[in-house]
Every structure is written in C-alpha cells, then in structure tokens.
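User: Hey, my collaborator sent me this sequence without any context and asked if I could get a structure. I don't really work with proteins. Can you help?
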Amino acid sequence: MTEMVYGTAPVREGEPVLPKWWRTIDKWSVSCVLILFAIGLLLGFAASPPLAERNGFDPFHYVQRQALFGALALIAMLTVSMMRPVLVRRLAVIGFFCALAAMIGLPFFGTDFGKGAVRWYSLGFGSFQPSEFLKPGFVVVVAWLMAAAQDLNGPPGRGLSFLLATVIAGLLAMQPDFGQALLVLFGWGVMYFVAGAPVLLLVGIGGLTVLAGTVAYNQSEHFARRIDGFLSPDLDPTTQLGYATNAIREGGFLGVGVGEGEVKWSLPDAHTDFIIAVAAEEYGVILVLAIIALYGTIVLRSLVRLMRERDPFIRLAGTGLAAVFGVQAFINMSVAVRLLPAKGMTLPFVSYGGSSLIAAGIAMGMLLAFTRARPQGEIGDILRGRFR
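Assistant: No problem. I've predicted the 3D structure and written it out in structure-token form, which is a compact way to encode the shape of the chain:
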C-alpha cells in the first residue's frame, strides 16, 4: 500500500539536499551529458586550432573558452536540477519573457556577424543569442498553459499556447532562423499531442507549416539558397556541405587518425555546426554511433521516467524538453550527412558556443529536475484503479 501511494521514492524527513538529489536524479542521463561534454572538448582540440590561427589567437583559444562555457553550463545544469518543479517553472517564465524581449530588440540592436541572419547581440568580449535561452523557457510556459487548460474552468491554454508558438516562430523566421522556428513548432506539436490533441488537427497544422515554408522560399533569398543547395543533384565540393560529406566519406569506419583530418582547415564552422564531420573524419563512424547512442539514452530514459509522472505539467514540460533536445541533435547530424538542408544549429554539449552551451545546460537541468523520482503514485496505479 505504501508504494501505491508514494511510488518507489520513499519520503525521508529532514534529508539533506545533496544526498536527496543524488538518490532521486537520473544518474545515467547525467553521465551521458558529462561524456558528451568531454567528447566536445576532445573534438575542440582538433577542430578549433585552424580557426584560432586564422583569427590570430593561441592554438587552443577556443578550447579554453569552450571549457569555461562548459563549466558554467554544467554548474547551471546541476543547480537547476536540484530545484523543485515549482521553482523551475517560476524561473523559466521569467527567463522566457527576458529572452523574448531580447529577441524583439534584435532587429534594432542585433548583428549578423556577416552570416546573413541577425541572431546575436555583440558584447565585445563575446556574443549572446537570445533564441537559445528562449527555447527551454518556451517549453515550460507552453506546458504550464496546456496543463492549466485541463483544470475545471481553466484558461484556454491550448489556444494561447498555439498563439504563442506562432508569434515565436514568426520572430525567428524574421531573423531569419527557420531551423529554430521549426524546432519551436515541433516542440509545441509534441506537447500538444501528449496533451491529447486530435491527430487531424496536428496534420492540419503541419500543412500550414509547409505552406509557410513555401512562402518563405519565395520571399527569402537566404532560405531559398539553402533549399536549392540541398535539392541540387550536384553537390559543390567547395561548399560546407561538400566538405562535410567528403570528410565523413574519408573517415570510414575507424577514421583517419587523431589530428590527421583535413576538413577542419576548410570548414569555417567545423567547431560548431559541422563538428560531427570532424568526429567522423578523425575517429570514424564508431565515435558517431557512440554520440548518437548517448543522445538516444538521454531522450529515452527521460521519456520512460516521465511515463510514471502523475503531474500533467511536469509530464508535458519534460516531454517537450526531451523532444527539443533530441531533435536538435538529430537536425545537426542530419545536415552534415545531407539528410536536411543547412540550419545553422549546434550539437548540444559538443559544439563550441557560449549561448548554446549554457542554454543547453539550463534546459538539461530542467529536464533532470522534472525526471527526478518523487514520492507519488505512478500513473499506472491510477489507470489500474479506474478499471477495477
């Protein structure tokens, strides 16, 4: 009877924070994140020296910065993972509106760093990308709205969440950043499906997304150029996709050897968007499969633990965070092998980048906080009780 009421995490009065955190956290997911970060540093030693040389810095300038940003990301992840879900929600709402205000100001104060998309604020010593911090906050806010809609006399949370998702996607498309816009819509769609949305409605929304993509293709030269390059049967070997594809082919199963890769000298984004090409060339498909397994473990373990969760807000928020995390990794790696057009999206915890690393740490901290074992009955107990 005790386990039916309290689940598998017994209540321990007066238990200190750290032992309680260690007992209830998903240790497999934490370990996978740490391994991914270590792999990112390892690949940074290979991928970043050519860029540092071109910019007149010390050979390991970017590796040192990645280690610093990564340390901040891990501190943020562990700190957030210790918080109660209510506190996570409050801080996420505040962070979401701050990031939204920063995104609205991008057309006036932002910069594109010569990449054709105004996504960053230049801070002199570095840059700040609001959309990276917007995603985890957006997921939590949408989950809150959808969960509130399930209450008696609750607000029209699903309609409000769709309006919010549309506004966010529109702001991202204006930068233009269609990859992040699609990622936001995907995360919303997953949560809407879990909340009980009709499949036909999701199909209709998918059709509207395709229509919006067609309009963007006709109106945005930046978007059209990437789509045309992706659909072209002849791949230009001097483009980023051409270099990445050749590097993966050269790496084969075991790779060409540590430090022996050539793609890092040709790709300007070898340390960020195309870091998986460096991994494939120098370490072969073995390392790539290991990286895929690490991401898969985090996502699947999170979803399994969320299946036992009774609180609809926690279940929706955790599912959205896991889906966005996994799909971002999938998109980054798919671009490198030309399964998708170039998106300008980093590989979480592996690619170089201050905003992306710290934001990924915050998002993973939220996911770990939502998937911690809590004293509650499992949802299976409730379902069995209904049919007795």
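In plain terms: DSSP finds 16 helices and two strands in the chain. You can pass these tokens on to your collaborator as they are.
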